[in-house]
Structures are given as C-alpha cells and as structure tokens.
C-alpha cells in the first residue's frame, strides 16, 4: 500500500500550470516526423548487440544537436553513451534507451512473413522505437526545464546490447548511475501497462568444445568429436531440468557443430541461458551447468572452455514510482487504429495462433497490478542501484509475442510509431512530475531502501569481464 502522504502527492495538482506540461507534449507531437524517420532508420539498420554503430550515432547526434553533453563509448562499449542536460543543482532523472536488433528475424513491414534481402536481423523487441521515444522525451523535458527554470539534470542513457549482451550491467558497474535519483524506461509491447513487475534473473554462457579432426569413415578412431561433447552436455543439461528449482528455466542452441559429415569436427559450441527469479539460484544452477560441460568433455575425450556472455539481476519493483507512471500512462491513453492500421492488424491476427486478444485492446490501458515477467532484462541491475520504473505501450498488434516476425513487421508501421509517441509522452510527463514533486522522489527512495534491504551489496553476474563486444559474431576457435 502507498503511504497516505504519497497518495496525496500523486493526486495533487501539479505546481506548474497545465499549459507548461502541455508544451512538453506539444514538443513531442512536433517531433513526430523526426521521431518516425529516426525509428524507421534504426529499424532498417537492424544492428545487433554492440554493433549498433549507426543507430547509436544517430541518437547521439540528435541529443547533441538539442544541447545535451554527450559522452560516447562509455563503460568499455563503443556504442554505449550518456547525454546530459543540466540546469544547476537538483534531482537527476535518467531515461534509458535501447537500439539493438535480434539476429535471425529479418522481416519486411508487411502482414505476411517476408524476409528482407538486405539484413539478417530484425527489431523483434522494438528497440528502434525504444531508443527514439526515450530521446524524444529527454529533449522535451529539457525544453520544459529550460522554460520553467527547473533545477537538476535530465540524462539519456544509450544502452546497447540488451538482447543477451547486458550493456546496462557494465554501465552500472562503471558507476554511471551512481548520481541518479530516479531511472525510467519503457518497452514496446502488444498492450499498454505499467505493472509493479518483477522479472527473472538470467546468466548465459558459450561452451566451446575442442576435439581432434579425422576422416569420419577412413580413420574415425583417430578423431575425437567436439560435437559429441556438445551433445553429451546437452543431454545431461536436459536431465538437469528434472532437478532444478520449480521456477527455473534453461534453454540453449548449438551455434557450431562442424562443417561436413565426413569430417570429425574439432570444434563445436553451444550457447546456454539459465533463469530464475532469484539471482543466487541462477549462480548455483550455472555452476552445475559448468560441471555438466566438464563431464561431457571427460566422457568424449575432448576439452571444453566457457565464456560468460551476460548476466542480469531481476527487476526490483517500486510501487511508488509505478503508481505515478500508471497515472501518466492512463492520461496519455492507448493506441487508436486508423482504417489502414485495422486492415494490417486483421491480416496479422490469423498468424498469431490461439489468442484471446482483440484489436480494441490496443486502445485500453491495463489496470495496474503486481506481475512477474518470465523474461529478463539488464534494467534489473539498474533497478537495484537506483529507484526505477517502467511501462509498455501497444506498438504491436494485440496478442503479438515479442521476438517474432509479427513484432518486427508492426514495428515498421504506423502502429509501432503511435505506440512510440505515446511512450515518449508518458516518460516526459513522469519526469516533469518528479522534478515538480520532490516528495515523490523521497518516497520512492524510501521504498527502494526497504525493498533492497540494509545489507545489500551489488555483485554483477558477469563478474569482472569486459563487455563481450563480439558475442554476436560467428563462432570461432
């Protein structure tokens, strides 16, 4: 339950005139064409984690042109950056933006599965919308601060490689959030919601087996198959599923298994994810997974080494902030479809399989509730460092799952762009309210301290490794 003083502050009229807040929304509306052009450019780039050079540069230029102080290549990642606009001593509000695409989801902006010929990746999580909306909001808040003499700083975080590269983790570890009072984020979705949400912690690793090549028919006894090592590990890992904590999840792919059936492969690689709501359970399960790899190597006469690729803590929720964000999301409202949008959506719906979602759901804002997201995000590490809140807007056709070709398609249309504009407005309104109402920041920090506990010490799941800048490259020896 919210404390009475916090509830009263949330319901109170803003100190500044409504016209001043409306000016921030008007700025976002005025930037619609620029926002859509930037989002479509990043959608077309479809750059994967730590390789988002053009996407990052586009956002950096836009913020620099708007008067922000841009620091590029932070935390050891060339595509990571911060952009700050300061107006004296006061609260520091951070807004996060992502821009990496997913491999293997190349798709046109059509309601039928159609692979693009120019890229091999796609924005199946809508990060092209994420980064642009957040930057637009930061600029609108800067304009409002300047016009009204509001003290403090607005800071945009350009965070690369959310999809399995944990870009934010390295930024947290570098101390880049240490002076931030409140951090905000959002995410593309098939619905409009701002829940008090937790998520799964996650740790991943690539397991590389090394064997001895030989002719698979002429001299098989002289070979030792690295693929045998991978398959033996996978078999034992699947046996682990029966003996893992109930809420755990583990999944993998084979990224390299050899080049020809008649050559005993001397190199093979698998890529594993381990998840659980508890980060300590993830640590323990990953250690067990390492033992299966070592056992597989011993049994197949191969050797194995592994590389931790990423790790993320679960989201630490903050009801105080989520109540504010939900109020702003309700104020902005959902996504309204045109006739053209409806025609596109009606063609997408049959491809989604069984879904109870209706097209009219895009216009609704879901009631705020407590929920758990089975996926993972590197926002989790930020949320254990600074009070953090987020939300989703309906950038996809209702019922669309993330990481799908349907999400890529809708994200390249006016449906995605409308959800992006709404997200920018919610972020701006939330940040402005926080600058106006220091009581909310204090209450959020009090809740944050209570949830985190007095004995919490931050430990990253990636340890002391440097950012895995090549994790999306083809496997090698």
Automatic annotation (TrEMBL):
Transmembrane helix keyword on record: no
SUPFAM superfamilies: Bacterial exopeptidase dimerisation domain, Zn-dependent exopeptidases
Keyword terms of this UniProt record: Hydrolase, Signal
Cellular component, GO annotation: cytoplasm
Top-level taxon of origin: Bacteria
Peptidase M20 dimerisation domain segment(s): 203-294
InterPro entries to which the protein is assigned, alphabetical: Amidohydrolase (IPR017439), Aminobenzoyl-glu_utiliz_pB (IPR017145), Bact_exopeptidase_dim_dom (IPR036264), Peptidase_M20 (IPR002933), Peptidase_M20/M20A_hydrolases (IPR052030), Peptidase_M20_dimer (IPR011650)
GO molecular function: dipeptidase activity; para-aminobenzoyl-glutamate hydrolase activity
Signal peptide: 1-18
Alphabetical GO biological process terms: folic acid catabolic process
Keyword Iron (UniProt): no
NCBIfam families: amidohydrolases
Protein's UniProt name: Amidohydrolase
Organism: Sphingosinicella microcystinivorans
The organism's taxonomic lineage, starting at the top: Bacteria, Pseudomonadati, Pseudomonadota, Alphaproteobacteria, Sphingomonadales
